[in-house]
Amino acid sequence: MKVQLRDPNKIMRLSRLGSFHQSKLSFLRSFLNEFKDWEYKRDLFNLDRFGYGEAVYSFKKDKRTYSLVCFANKIDDDERSDRVIATKWDAAFTLHDGIPTQKDIDRLKNEVPRQEVGRLSFKELTLSRANKSVRVFNHVVESLSEGKQPDLELLSNVGYLYRTTAVYGSGKFGLADRFRIKNREEINGPFRLEMMLVYLVRQFTFDQVNHVAYHKNPSKAVVLDKKICKNLGIGNSTGLGMAPFIVNHPTLLNNWVMSREIALKKIREIKIVNKKDSDLFIECLKKSLTNIISWNTDSKYQQIKINKLLKDIKKFIHLIDNDFDFEDKYPFDKIYLWLEEKACEECIEYVVSIMMEPYNEITNPLVSQMSSDEDKYFTIPTSRTVKDVINIIEKKYSNILKINFTKKQNTQNFWFISKNKEEPRLADRFEEGGSELEQPLAIARDVKKLYKKLLDTKKNSTVAEFLSKYSELRHIVRRVFIVEKFPYSEIQDNTIGKNIMPIDMLRLKLSFFGALKFDPRSDKWLRICMFQGAPLPDELKNYDEQWVYRTGN
Amino acid sequence: MKSLSEIETTSKRASKAAGFSWGEAEEIGKCIRQLEMFGLPGIKHLNSYFRDKEKNTYENLSLINQSNSSSSNPYCPIILGIGFLDQIKILENYEKIYFSNIAYPIIFLSFLSRSSEIIGKKINVKFDENEIFLNLNVNIYSNFLNFEFPKNSKNLEINFIENKDNFNEDEWKSLYKLSENTFVEETDSLKKGAAGAGLTDND
Questions:
Q1: Cβ neighbours of residue A286 under 8 Å, at least 6 residues apart?
Q2: Cα of A17 vs its chain's centroid, Å
Q3: Distance CA A50, CA A261 (A)
Q4: Do residues A461 and B9 make contact, with C-beta atoms less than 8 angstroms apart?
Q5: B22–A474 CB contact, under 8 Å
Q6: What's the ipTM?
Q7: Do A58 and A97 meet the contact criterion of CB atoms below 8 Å apart?
Q8: Is A178 in CB contact (< 8 Å) with chain B?
Q9: Which of A167, A214, A496, B105 has the most CB atoms in a 10 Å sphere around its CB?
C-alpha cells in the first residue's frame, strides 16, 4: 500500500504547525545520539564560594574537541531580565572550537559576558547566556547545604535551575560561519552545536549549585541527587526573534517538515507491526501522560490545547486498549486515519511523534537530510515564463489566493526590525509608525500581489522580462520557484493578519529543537524546557532512547 | 573580523535602505559576500557607491544588448548586474558584449561571476587596460588585484570563453603515457580471471 505524503495546504497552516511536538527527529535527541560515544570532561572549574568564575567542559573524539567556556557573574536582582533588552546575565557561555588556551579564555572573558555587543572570532561556534530561576536555585542551595534534597514538587513545577534567553550561531557577532564547519560529519544536522551548548550548560548548572551549597555549609552539605538532576532541564525564554527564521529559511523548513512527513508515511505503510514495536509505542504513549499532566502554564490559550490533548489522548488510549488490534494489517495507517477523524491537531501531532519511537531504521537516515545548502536554490530561473509562475502559484498557494487583502483585518500587522536591539518585532500597521520599513515576511500578501500582476502580463513573457518591470516582486518570485521544488517550504497562512498567533511559529521551530512544556507568556513569547529527563553526560554511553517519555516529571 | 554572514545581512539591509527592493537587496548581499570571500573590496565599493548615489544620477539599464552605451550618466552596476544575471541565458549567445560607462565595475563583476556559474562557462572581462577571469564563481583571477579598483569603467568588454582544454594534444598524450606506467600488462590468465564480467556477451 502506498500512502501519500500529507497535503502541505493542511500541514503548513499555522494552527497545525503550532501543534507540533518533539520527536526522534528533534535536534536535541539526534545530538545526544551522535555524541554518545564522545569523551565528556570537565576541564576547568574555577568558581569562588558564591559560584562566580570560569568553567570549561568538553566533548572530545579523535582529534576533535568542542569546549564550552562558561562565565558566571554576580548580578543584582533588579538587573536580571529574560528580555532581549537585558545587558547582564547570571552566566554567559560560548562553544569554542578546540581546546581554549589561557589567552583564549582571557579574551573570551572580556567578550562573552557582553553578548551582542561583544566580538567573537571564527574559533567560537555558538554564544549564549542564561539567568537563574532564583526561586529554584536558592531553594536547592538552601536544601543541599542543610544536608537535604530539595522539594520535588517545586522542581517539577519549574523544571530547571537556569533558563537561556538566546542562543546564537552561524556567524553572528563574529562567530564562525557555517561554511567553515559544514563538512564535519558529527554536525551534519541542524543546530547541533547549539544543542551541545545547551546540554553542557545544563551540567554546569548542577555543578554550580552543588559548589555553592558545599561552600555555604561544608560540613553538612550533600550533592543534588542524580535522579533529580536528570529530571531537570534547561529553560528557555523565546520571543519573536525566532519567528522570521522559518520564513527566511524556506528550504531548511521544508527539510525539517519533509523528514517528519516521510517518517509518518513510511510508518503508515508498515503492513505487519512486530509486537515489540507496538508494545514500545503503547508504552511511550501511556507513560507520556505524565508529561501532559505535569505541563503547567498560565496561558488560557495553551491550557485549552492541553485539556483537549489530554481528553483525546485518553480517548485514544481507550481505543488502543479495548478496540484495536495491532495484528491487523497497516495498523499505524488505521491509527492515523482515526486520529484525523476523532482527535484535535495537538493530539494528532503528539501521536505522530510517538509513532516514530520504535523505528530508528526509518528516522536515523532522515536526520542527516534535515540540513540545507540554501545557496543552491537562490538563483531565480529567469528563462521560465510568466505562465509557469502562474501555474505554480495556483497549485502551491491555493489557500493563500483565497485571502482578501483589501480587508483591513488581513493586513493588520507588520514585521519590523527594532533599531534598539536589531530584533524582529510585530506591530499594528494602523496604530504604530514604521510600516514603511516592513520586513519581507508578509509572504501570503506578496504572493497574491504577484499573482495579480502576472495575470495582467503576457503569459509567454520570460520571468527576466517580468522582473525588469516589477523588481519589487523579486523576493517573492524567488520563493515561488523554491516552493515548486520544496512543498513544505512555505507557511500556508497569513502572517500579518489580525488573528495571527506568532507563538505558533515559535512552537514549530522549538518542537524541532526538541523542546517540551511550551508555556506561552503572551501571544509573542513563551518559555520552554529542554533536555528535561535526558541522560547526564557521564551516562551517555548507554542511555535509554525513550527518556523523553520515561521522565519522572 | 566580520563573518560572511554579517557581511551578507548588513549589505542586504543597507541596499534596501538605499532604495533597492528586498529581492534586489538579497542579490546584492549575496554578491558582496562573494567578493569579500574572494578577498575583493566589496564592502568598500558598495559603501562608496551608496554615498555617491545620494548626489549623482545613474542610468538603469534593464534589457541588455550586445553593445550598450550610456553617454550621459554611468550605468548603475547593480541594476545592470541583476539584468545581466537574469538574461544570461540569452546573452551567452553573443560572443562579446560591450558596455561603456559603468559605475563601480567591481560590484558589476560579482554579478558576472555568478552568471559564469549559471552558464558553466568562464568569463573574461577587459576594462580600461585591466583583465579579469571569472571562473564559474569559484574564484576571480586578475592581473591587477593588488591595485585600486576604479570607480568608473569607460569601456568594458565581456567574452564568454567556450569550454575547451587549456593544453594541447601533445601535452595531454605525454602525461597520459606517463600515467600508463601505473597499469599492469594482462596475461591470458589475468584476462580470464581478473575481470568481474562474463567472458562472452551471450551468457
A1: A317
A2: 12
A3: 49
A4: no
A5: yes
A6: 0.88
A7: no
A8: yes
A9: B105
Angstrom distances, CA of residue A423 to CA of A92, A215, A245, B50, B161: 19, 40, 11, 25, 46
Nearest to A518 by CA among A531, A501, A502, A530: A530
- Are the C-beta atoms of A465 and A391 separated by less than 8 Å? no
Q: Which residues contact B68 (CB under 8 A, 6 or more apart)?
A: B61, B75, B97, B98, B99, B100
pLDDT for res A297: 82
Q: Which chain B residues have a beta carbon less than 8 Å from that of A382?
A: 85-87, 89
Minimal Cβ distance to B1: which of A122, A379, A473: A122
For chain B, the first-to-last Cα distance in angstroms comes to 66
Nearest C-alpha in B relative to A471: B21
| pLDDT tens for each residue of A434-468 | 999 999 999 999 999 999 999 999 999 999 999 99
Closest CA to A206 of A83, A79, A42: A42
Q: Could you tell me where the beta strands, DSSP code E, fall in chain B?
A: 67-69, 96-103, 122-127, 130-135, 139-142, 152-161
Amino acid code (one letter) for A227? K
Number of C-alpha atoms within 13 angstroms, CB side, residue A53?
Answer: 14
Banded model confidence at residue A547, pLDDT cuts 50, 70, 90: very high
The predicted-structure confidence for A176-186, as pLDDT tens digits, reads as follows: 998 888 889 99
Is residue A170 less than 8 Å (CB to CB) from chain B?
Answer: yes
Mean pLDDT calculated for residue range A286-291: 90
Report yes or no: A454 and A389 within 8 Å, Cβ to Cβ.
yes
Cβ-based contacts under 8 A for chains A and B: 75
- Other beta carbons within 10 angstroms of residue A228's beta carbon come to 16
| Residues A417, A534: Cα–Cα separation, whole Å | 36
HSE-up of A73 (CA within 13 Å, CB side)? 19
Can you tell me the distance from the alpha carbon of B118 to that of B147, in angstroms, rounded to the nearest whole number?
Answer: 28
Name the grid cell of B178.
606517463
B137 in the Ramachandran plot: left (φ > 0), alpha (ψ -120 to 50) or beta?
left
Q: Which of A541, A503, A515, A518 is nearest to A246 (CA)?
A: A503
d(CA A196, CA A59): 9
Name the burial class of residue A361, with classes exposed (0-12), middle (13-18) and buried (19+) by CB atoms within 10 angstroms of its CB.
exposed
